[in-house]
Specification:
The complex is a heterodimer of chains A (275) and B (268). By secondary structure, chain A is of the alpha/beta class. Chain A contains 10 helices and 10 strands. The N and C termini of chain B lie far apart (50 Å). The chains are: A alpha/beta (275), B mainly alpha (268).
Chain lengths: 275, 268
């Protein structure tokens, strides 16, 4: 019997291949490889300075790598035509860390901006769709407010509503729980899970809040000093013996106080030397 | 030795060239986007934004520009009169004020006022947007920041700065008339007749052409400084200062170039 023909592997929603990024000095990202399948929720973990925000900026097409490539639905972001890039950008919704709401526009104008720019829908349809996006995040009655009048949690939710405006295939969150109290952070987690279930979106979340990561992740990827040190499910990472992963999961601090240097300087001072 | 000096000179030159290049690229992008900002044929949201900018850049600047022009008119008339009096040539004060304002002071004073008011406002506004990632948000929503933020300001300035120039020129000339009324008892009617006599259409046109060039410089330098902000609130403040200083400097540089060309081609 001839062997069964192989099922063609589905194109991953996002593919990062050998990406190297440096801003003139040491490499911020050193040969990153990552595949995010369609409908998957990938959480990018890493400490400060690990390069996860830089990787995010590469994935959403704000910057280009020095070498390597970033593919969205199989299309190389650096090589496609400007109109293709526009289409890809419209299929990715981004909720920024500080919400990045346009301060000169009301909340509902923030959400409807993409609809007005990229569609020819009637005004009444736009208003309805805007209200629905706001209602999904629980801000249905707050459309007329300006961003300055919102609390931190409300701003984050408004940013999510804006990211949802064009019904994107891919949703990206940069530190969604940063600066939020545990209750509001949990609400945001539920929102992300609900969206993913309802619309089968591919979700990429950059965070270092382990509780959120445990709740929402299908797969996790951990970065350390510009390198990808692990990619896998939560269980796989929890079983890992890599010291940095263990330190992250077990919440073990680095030694920061330099007691030897303090002692030495004090000794010198007491002996009358220069400090 | 002299190597560090050469290195610094070279680095500085490259930075200036890169700045001018960045300005040129931005100008090209904005000029292309102007078509989409026009009323009727363009995007109505851009046009609405441009109207708001016209109010901010033009209407709100009107009192300041008017007062500056009136003061400059008095100054020019008085200084001119104190010298021309010695030659018994007081009647040439009219020519001095008229030609001085239409060719030079009208456009230049307006540019300085608009640069201080609006140039710094643009860079502070856009710089703040860079710091809060609003510019990045626009890009990820497939909206071009130059078309969305810059082009309406540019179109507004191109319409409004020449209007302010006309107002400033007229105010300066009228101030000269008031001075002549009280110093040599020249009636306003006679003064205005002399003004009409000495005003030349090509002077008015070159003045308006200058004002278009100055408007371009002010908008683009202001916006470029804003877009180049890296850091926090202190960087935004520095960009506002840089915008005013650089645009004023470039305006005066452009003025020299214009005046020299017109002088040498004998149009003056």
């Amino acid at each position: 019997m001839p062997p069964a023909p192989e099922e063609p592997r589905p194109v991953p929603a996002i593919s990062v291949r050998d990406v190297v990024v440096s801003y003139g000095g040491p490499r911020v990202l050193d040969g990153i490889n990552l595949d995010i399948a369609r409908g998957e929720t990938m959480v990018l973990l890493g400490g400060s300075g690990s390069g996860k925000s830089t990787l995010l900026r590469q994935i959403i097409g704000l910057e280009r790598p020095q070498s390597g490539m970033v593919l969205v639905n199989g299309v190389d972001l650096a090589k496609c035509t400007p109109s293709d890039l526009k289409k890809i950008r419209r299929s990715i919704g981004v909720a920024f860390q500080n919400s990045a709401l346009f301060n000169s526009l009301s909340v509902e104008d923030n959400v409807s901006l993409a609809l007005r720019e990229h569609t020819r829908l009637a005004e009444s349809t736009i208003r309805l769709m805007t209200w629905m996006k706001l209602a999904v995040v629980g801000l249905g009655e707050f459309g007329k407010l300006s961003p300055q009048a919102l609390s931190g949690g409300m701003k984050k939710r408004a940013a999510v509503a804006r990211a949802l405006a064009l019904d994107p295939e891919i949703l990206v969150f940069d530190e969604p729980s940063a600066g939020l109290d545990p209750i509001v952070a949990a609400e945001l987690d539920e929102l992300i899970l609900g969206l993913k279930r309802a619309f089968n979106m591919t979700v990429v979340v950059v965070t270092h809040e382990m509780a959120s990561a445990h709740r929402i992740a299908d797969k996790m990827a951990m970065l350390y000093q510009g390198s990808m040190i692990a990619v896998g499910t939560r269980e796989e990472l929890e079983r890992s013996s890599h010291p940095r992963i263990r330190q992250f999961f077990d919440r073990v601090p680095d030694k920061i106080g330099d007691t030897a240097a303090i002692d030495e300087k004090f000794e010198r001072y007491l002996k009358g030397g220069s400090v | 030795m002299s190597i560090p000096v050469v290195e610094r000179l070279g680095g500085s030159t490259l930075r200036q060239l890169e700045y001018v290049g960045g300005l040129a690229i931005q100008f090209w992008d904005a000029a292309g986007a102007l078509g989409r900002t026009l009323p009727l044929v363009g995007n109505r949201h851009r046009w609405r934004s441009a109207i708001g900018q016209m109010l901010a850049i033009g209407v709100d600047a009107f009192p300041m520009v008017g007062i500056m022009a009136v003061c400059a008119g008095f100054i020019l008339a008085m200084q001119g009169a104190s010298e021309l009096r010695r030659f018994g040539a007081m009647q040439f004060v009219v020519d001095l004020v008229t030609i001085g304002f239409t060719r030079e002071l009208g456009p230049l004073l307006t540019a300085i006022a608009v640069s201080g008011r609006s140039g710094s406002a643009f860079s502070a506004e856009i710089g703040s947007m860079v710091v809060t990632e609003e510019i990045d948000a626009l890009r990820t929503m497939a909206i071009d920041p130059v078309e969305f933020v810059l082009a309406p300001k540019y179109l507004a300035a191109l319409i409004v700065v020449p209007c302010l120039t006309i107002i400033s020129t007229a105010s300066g000339i009228l101030a000269g008339g008031v001075f002549m009324r009280f110093s040599v008892d020249m009636t306003l009617g006679v003064y205005l007749r002399d003004v009409v006599h000495s005003i030349a259409l090509k002077d008015v046109m070159t003045g308006l052409l200058k004002s278009l060039a100055f408007a371009t410089i002010i908008v683009h330098v202001g916006c470029l400084e804003g877009l180049r902000v890296r850091g926090g609130p202190d960087a935004v403040g520095r960009s506002a200062t840089a915008a005013v200083v650089k645009s004023t400097f470039l305006v005066i540089l452009a003025d020299v170039v214009f005046t020299a060309i017109l002088y040498m081609t004998g149009a003056s």
